[in-house]
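Many groups now describe folds with learned vocabularies. In that spirit, our science desk offers one protein's residues alongside their backbone shape tokens.
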Amino acid sequence: MANNGQQRNREGGYRSPGRTGSTRAGHDRAPSSGRSRGTISSRNMEHGRVSSSRNERHDNFFEEDYDSRPSRSTGRGAGSTRRNAGHDAGSPTRNPERTTNSSRRGTGRGGSSSPSRNGGRGTTQRRNAPGPSSGRRKPKNKFSRIFQGGPLGIALVLLAVVVLIFLAVFLIKSFLCKGTVTIEAGESYSISDFLKQDNPDASFASNSDAVDTNVPGKYKLIIKNGIFTHKCTLEVKDTIAPQGTANDMSTVLGKELEASAFVTDIVDVTPVTVSYAVKPDFTQEGSQSVELVLEDSSKNKTTLTATLTLMRDTEAPVITGVRDITHSIGSGISYKANVNVTDNLDPDVELEVNTDGVDLNTEGTYQVTYSATDFSGNSTSQAATVTVIRSNHTEEEIMGIANDILAEITTEDMTPYDKASAIYDWVRGHVGYASTSSEAWTDAAYEGMVQGRGDCWAYTSASRALLTAAGIENMVIRKIPSDTTHAWNLVDLGEGWYHFDTTPRASHNERFFMWTDAQLMDYSNAYGLTHNYDKAQYPNIN
């Protein structure tokens, strides 16, 4: 039998029983190690290894599970069955305890093996067949495992899908729109500046920030671009320094000037302040260089240079337009009307009028004094006479009459020029010349407008009342006294003063309407200085 066993070992892969006796002998040394096979088996059971009874249950499960499946190729399952059978029948001399332990381990690895070899290992059956504790098959792929993980696995999958969609949309939008566009303050922008691909249908949403390109800052803009909505930023930066023109200035000793007085034509999109780099000395006579700093709201700076000249002022101011006044009791009076003051160095010189002792409700002659003093203390003064007379007609009455006349000769759609021309023609054609008229202008105006007669004073007074009622600026001008006197009007329709004389001439039928000063002086010089006047007392005439 031994030879047969050896022969099978060579031919079929079985091992000789002799190896079982010699090789496995070392595993049966329980007496020398102080413990029996039973002890080993008990310990194996304590550590969760399969007992003999569990091995039987495992075999039953294996048979029930795999009998219902298509058999695989002859391999470990078949070999193991043969080996287990051989072990049960052909190894009567094996230690029972070892046998029990071996049945836990299962069958051999596969192929033909000796009964003793097969009886010593029980692992093949555990590898090839699922144990009793494994009630389901392994998942076929990772996604199956995730879905078998229950709600948590499904939630993780959904979260991953959402993240991927978000990333995809973000990438698509980033290819369509720029996140931030930067422009210089004062420049314009358009929706195409934000889109990487032009879309004529794209538009800014109404809930975008209101943009002022003259104010640096960041503005949030929302762009509707097809199915996408882009949130973009417009950044307005001011990096350009302000520009301006520096002008040399002159003033008197001790009078300080603001830095802004030196600079004109300032150009910048934001507000600009002008300051001195170093404040000049306004007590030092002569010229000195001044550095001026222009700074905008974004802290951009430009430095300009100008010259400041400080002079000692010895020239007094000049007063023009002072003349005697005839005042009717009960009428208003304006002492400073058409009176001006100028100074060579002090632009802020003021005109003062001393009316102490004047009683406008009592007939008589009074004196008033006009004076002015500049910053350096230089003064000038002029005197004029105010004659107070009693009038039979008040200004209120005269203006009422004038308004009634205007209602007949003018319309609301007339220009000031057309109204002035209508007034000129009415006075010239309505008033007849007489050698005398009342002294009070209201009485003279009444005589001219109502009675239709009077001298040049009546013509002038009637014209004054009508022009004033029409809202046209006017004033009375008088010839320099000589053997004859004359008065007429000046009017300003918004383009400067012009001569307006409604008094007819005996030998010439000239229409002195809106004449320039040169025209009137040519006529005056040709006909005996008929309109010679003191230019210092009146404003400049065109």
The chain is about 35% helix and 25% strand.
